[in-house]
Design a protein that fits this description.
Strands 2-1-3 form a three-stranded antiparallel sheet. Helix 3 packs across helix 4. With about 80 residues, the protein is α+β, with helices and mostly antiparallel strands. The chain is built from four helices and three strands; from the N terminus they run ββααβαα. The protein is globular and about 30 Å long.
Length: about 80
């Protein structure tokens, strides 16, 4: 299973993809992920679970695109 997730950071949002959501969230929370280390504190806002690795990474990339950000704002925030 692959997880696409959104973290609410002190200065905005972070979208990521991983296999072990609990472990990845702990790494973010403890400052071990460079992309969010200086953006703490964080809150897990939402996640999707997808079985296909390639579809998961495609969806992550979509959410990071302009239209994906609009989708998140309209439907998930």
């Amino acid at each position: 299973m692959y997880f696409i997730y959104s973290l609410k950071c002190k200065d905005g949002y972070y979208i990521g993809c991983c296999e072990d959501l609990k472990e990845r969230f702990e790494r973010h929370k403890n400052g071990h992920v460079p992309a969010t280390a200086d953006r703490l504190p964080i809150i897990l806002e939402f996640y999707f679970a997808i079985t296909n690795k390639y579809k998961a990474f495609e969806f992550e990339n979509y959410l990071k695109s302009g239209s994906g950000r609009v989708f998140v704002k309209k439907h998930l925030s």
